[in-house]
Request: fold
Amino acid sequence: MVWNRKTPGNLKDQRMLWQPLSVWIILLLGASILVAACGKKADPFIAKKKISASVTSITARYEKGIIKLDGELLWAGGRQDKDREKPKIRVDYGHYGPGNAPCATCPVDFTNHRIVSAIPTKDGRFVARLEVPEQEGVYLLRVRVVGEDGGLGPPSETVRVKIQ
Reply:
């Protein structure tokens, strides 16, 4: 058969060839976009492990630019003595000027934090020192044990230290 452009039958045959091909092209384009949109978004990471050591019965007192913290370190079973020699603690704290301290049940904005060494005592307690500027007002503090990999233990209760 000789192909003639003006013959309507040949044009119809030509359209019939392109219709299934165009459907397949659209399906492949859609599938490739879907595959590119799903999957890996960032490099994989291992979440920091929470440690099971915690701080309880914490007290704090202020003396000449230093807040002295005293509390009890509770270690979960299975920890080696090497881990207990010089534990690090993270002290989250916020300073409020005179008359601006939040109430006991109000949320506290712990705007600052420092990681300090805790000195354990033989009776399972620890002592730590936090240097702060001498400003009148109230410091609100919360303490957490820091693991070797940077993981944090549960937060302690909030402690208030008044500076006059």
